[in-house]
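Hi R.,

Here's the chain you asked about this morning:
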Amino acid sequence: MKKLTVDLKERSYEIIIQNDILKDVKNYIDPNKNVFVISNKTVFDIYGKYFDGYNVFLMGDGEEYKNFDTYKALLEKLLSSGIQRTDLIIALGGGVVGDVAGFTASTCLRGVDLIQIPTTLLAQVDSSVGGKTAIDTKFGKNLVGTFYQPKKVIIDPNTLKTLPERQIKTGLSEVLKYAFIERNCIDKEGETFFDYLSNCNLEDSFEEIIYKCCLMKAKVVEKDEKEGGLRAVLNFGHTFAHAIEKITNYTVYTHGEAVAIGMKCILKLAFIKGYIKEDYYKKSIEFLSKFNLQLQLDKKYNYDEVIKALYSDKKVKYGKLNFVMPVDFALVELVHNIDELSLKESLL
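And here is the predicted structure, written out as tokens:
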């Protein structure tokens, strides 16, 4: 078992990582609370047996269900079931379930306790930690949401064994993101996360990878809980990714697939604009390519539409685009005022 704490003073909480922890999950849930589990059919068909006796509400499976309709339906089910502020909501599933259940918990009765139990790699290394909740709108991704920290995050790496390869790769993009934003040594003297991922066997290392990612994210969140500055680094590659998801109506690329393309775009943009040198650019593209991720946006999509969609990103301030830009090995800065010609070139 691996444990770490997200230190946010009175709102601090524990992240527990252990293979097969779901078999004993009720040992980590207050028996005196009335529990409401929000999940989807795909996940609950596999893991529902560990949550017998609890109230269960299932939502649709996929990004297209991360919307006002789902949020409204969940609220109505919770309220009609007599949920109270002393009760508990559990988010059991991937990033979509975690985001919607978290947003619902944060607004229902002005706040009901929440436990995140992520079952996908993407959710385990990123979205379940840090308290971001949101739903999508026709204007863009994650534009309606809250910062609402869970009371606990419970991670069972063995849930990854039930995922299709596409979902593993989706989460892998969020894992690789950390290699570009964190240059601090991890274990061995001089070994960065970039080095660790380059040399480890992924299938044998997921528990350790999840722990390292959660540790890095926790340190960022502790310093900047509500994305006043530093926390924006966690969005490396995401500005392009969210625009790509928007123009494809969230139905062509998974979030992680869009992030992989987004990371390639921002690396190319950084090289074009002189923020990074050619050797780091080439090394970075080789690193991403090693994991067999799609790095190129299909040329059938209109690049002008992508650029237009960039302006719906949450990091736009005073009408200016802001990018988490690589400026050196595993080091990024927030940069704005990038010309549209360079943006288009980075998509090619």
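One quick note: The mean pLDDT is 94.

Cheers,
M.
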